């Protein structure tokens, strides 16, 4: 046989990846525990009794993490955005009106998803790096009929938290709306009580608070939403892969939808098991302590945080970059000199440090804060690094 196209000469991964693994301290993906990594290396049959047992336990643990008794916990082969799209595509019908609460990049992504299912998004814009006000939401809902409300619990783009999500959800329910919540960066890092708050769909990604791998996500529908919008739906959703009724065949009926990402589901199983082993109460405390300690150290060093404490997201910390300092230079120096990676932002002059899952460990905080201070100095900023490190240590010591 004569090959019409020559085989490419490809450099092996060991010549592409850094010699020393980088500490991933950005807005995701995050470091994963060894047991999660080991599970991700296993391949099993995507059908059959072994997979059924795994799926059963993933659903059981998912109900705990979502704080729901709903039977409709579904895994999604794709990023958190795919789970977000599944929620919108199955709960929002063409021609319906949706109030989209927007205070950042990812809440605006929900607007785009609503448009693509031929519904009408109405935007409630929240400015000045603040969380949404339940009273403002109520005024919007009183002015016209809406079928659903979308919002993000934690905006990784600008590190704003909708801290009054519980009240907003209750307001929406009083007006007969379904509530769709993006909890991609917050689930298992801070409270979210799906049933008690009256949330109808909660979306999360594997690669953030759960400390699992990217590309496998988790979604929960309330029983009410399932019965009202999915179980008896006559018009087919726009997406075959993201059709919740078809996905239900695999996740609840031991039947076939498509070949599941078995390694990713095994990784997700172990990540959820570790969450359950730690318990949500202890996990929430660990995340809050570590994030607030990091924030205190950053401020003691002489830097400012973007968002006021009342609206601040603990899962991702936003740091204002002085005008004379290049954020890209700081990030590059942290990566090259200290093997620590953090994130830039979506058009904002900030740096973002994640506090999700395995990032929220004391040894990671000390290494990251030192790398940040050293790299800021290399970029021309004058900081009090000893004060920052001392404050971090003081905060952690008092909290443990």
Topology overview:
Layout: E1 23-24, H1 34-39, H2 49-66, E2 72-77, H3 80-91, E3 97-102, H4 105-116, E4 120-125, H5 134-142, E5 148-152, E6 154-155, E7 160-161, H6 165-174, E8 178-182, H7 194-197, E9 201-205, E10 216-221, H8 223-230, H9 244-253, H10 262-278, H11 280-301, E11 316-320, H12 327-338, E12 340-341, E13 350-354, H13 362-378, H14 385-399
Parallel strand pairs: 1-12, 3-4, 3-5, 5-8, 8-9
Antiparallel strand pairs: 2-10, 6-7, 9-10, 11-13
Helix pairs in contact: 2-10, 5-6, 11-13, 11-14, 12-13, 13-14
What does this protein structure show overall?
The chain folds into 2 domains: 245 residues, Type I PLP-dependent aspartate aminotransferase-like (Major domain) (Aspartate Aminotransferase, domain 2), CATH 3.40.640; 121 residues, Aspartate Aminotransferase, domain 1, CATH 3.90.1150. The mean pLDDT is 95. With 400 residues, it is α/β, with parallel strands linked by helices. The protein has 14 helices and 13 strands. 43% of the residues lie in helices and 14% in strands. The strands form 4 sheets. It has a 7-stranded mixed β-sheet with strand order 2-10-9-8-5-3-4, sandwiched between helices. The protein has a two-stranded parallel ribbon with strand order 1-12. Strands 6-7 form a two-stranded antiparallel sheet.
